């Protein structure tokens, strides 16, 4: 039921403070009751993923982790890859399910393959799962729909618990997928002494995240509606990001194109000079993601390059509150500021304005928000 919302998509965007809470419930532990007294390091069990806890020793023996997914689910893997690599110190690769199947990439018993899917029924992801099982890799599902094929066939897994997602455009599943993979990384690094300070920073930021998502929604809805009015007649929009925001520009571009039918591209900001800069003139709308993280200086460079090519009148910067580096651009670009959180969760906040923008663009263009042309919620055929 849509309740008082005009569309399922808007309802699902606004449900995110609650869906994130549900994803964390019983998994991101608030107090230290479960302190492991037998462990000499006195490491606290601050997370608990029941669905994979029996297989922890298998994970620890594995030589790499391979994430396999399609569309928005693929982007959530990109968003969480860096923290998974950082905390597990394992090589992490990400595969588009269709390409993975085409290549029949070599897989080994020592590999962990994680299949990420909202519906749990996506044909390409399912076929990739069957292939991984044949290769005897350990298979893990990160799935929203309980009882779905991927949930049943994988060796173990975690449900997103995000609640039913009806709108074809995935919103709350995306943010729940990111934090599920982050919790997964916390679980795999639970007993790593050198990671404890970093783990605590991420753990505490997870607990604070739902309130920040709520604030972002309240602060930015009208702002994004106004920006949508300005962009509604454009035929093309380019989105740039890097580091933790690379996934955000890919996902933001997918949301806008699938709903508003405006051509959009999400481009790694490091690729600017390798081709995309040629597209920039004073008429090209550009959305740039700038966070206060390890990539901040490089993103500033990209910003200057874009500005120098005339991308001024149509420049939108998605930044973080309190970032003094952005003040210089206040007169030259539209600044959209989200609250700051730990680097690896910033993408959960910066995708919110993109969800709102794609929604308002679609309404402004008089299109079908919940059922875009030619698309289905669940892609059960290749
Ligand atoms: O159900 P899945 O997560 O496996 O679906 C994969 C994609 O079809 C899906 O994420 C699609 O890209 C979104 N509906 C786009 O918003």
TrEMBL record:
Catalytic activity line of the entry: D-fructose 6-phosphate + L-glutamine = D-glucosamine 6-phosphate + L-glutamate
Superkingdom, taxonomy of origin: Eukaryota
EC assignment: 2.6.1.16
Keyword field contains Nucleotide-binding: no
Annotated SIS domain residues: 52-200, 227-372
BP GO terms, sorted: amino sugar biosynthetic process; fructose 6-phosphate metabolic process; protein N-linked glycosylation; UDP-N-acetylglucosamine metabolic process
Protein name as annotated: glutamine--fructose-6-phosphate transaminase (isomerizing)
Organism: Gracilariopsis chorda
Lineage: Eukaryota, Rhodophyta, Florideophyceae, Rhodymeniophycidae, Gracilariales
Residues of the full protein shown: 316 to 697 of 697
């Amino acid at each position: 039921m849509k309740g008082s919302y005009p569309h399922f998509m808007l309802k699902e965007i606004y449900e995110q403070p609650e869906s994130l809470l549900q994803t964390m419930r019983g998994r991101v532990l608030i107090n230290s009751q479960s302190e492991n007294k037998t462990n000499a390091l006195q490491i606290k069990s601050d997370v608990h993923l029941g669905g994979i806890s029996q297989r922890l020793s298998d994970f620890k023996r594995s030589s790499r982790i391979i994430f396999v997914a399609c569309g928005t689910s693929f982007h959530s893997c990109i968003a969480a890859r860096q923290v998974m690599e950082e905390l597990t110190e394992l090589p992490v690769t990400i595969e588009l399910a269709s390409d993975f199947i085409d290549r029949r990439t070599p897989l080994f018993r020592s590999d962990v393959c994680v299949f990420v899917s909202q519906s749990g029924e996506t044909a390409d992801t399912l076929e990739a799962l069957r292939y991984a099982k044949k290769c005897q890799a350990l298979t893990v599902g990160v799935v929203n729909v309980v009882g779905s094929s991927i949930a049943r066939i994988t060796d173990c897994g975690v449900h997103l618990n995000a609640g039913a997602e009806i709108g074809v455009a995935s919103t709350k599943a995306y943010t729940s997928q990111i934090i599920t993979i982050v919790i997964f990384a916390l679980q795999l690094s639970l007993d790593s002494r050198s990671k404890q300070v970093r783990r605590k920073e991420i753990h505490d930021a997870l607990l604070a995240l739902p309130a920040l998502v709520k604030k972002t929604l309240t602060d930015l809805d009208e702002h994004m509606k106004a920006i949508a009015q300005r962009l509604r007649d454009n035929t093309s929009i380019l989105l740039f990001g890097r580091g933790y925001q690379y996934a955000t520009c890919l996902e933001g571009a997918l949301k806008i194109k699938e709903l508003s039918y405006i051509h959009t591209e999400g481009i790694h900001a490091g690729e600017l000079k390798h081709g995309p800069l040629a597209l920039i003139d004073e008429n090209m709308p550009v959305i740039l993601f700038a966070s206060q993280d390890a990539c901040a200086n490089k993103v500033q460079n990209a910003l200057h390059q874009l500005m120098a090519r005339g991308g001024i009148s149509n420049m939108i910067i998605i930044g973080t509150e309190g970032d003094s580096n952005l003040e210089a651009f206040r007169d030259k670009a539209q600044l959209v500021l989200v609250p700051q959180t730990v680097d690896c969760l910033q993408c959960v906040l910066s995708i919110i304005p993109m969800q709102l923008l794609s929604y308002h663009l679609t309404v402004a263009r008089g299109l079908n928000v919940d059922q875009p042309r030619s698309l289905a919620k669940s892609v059960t055929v290749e």
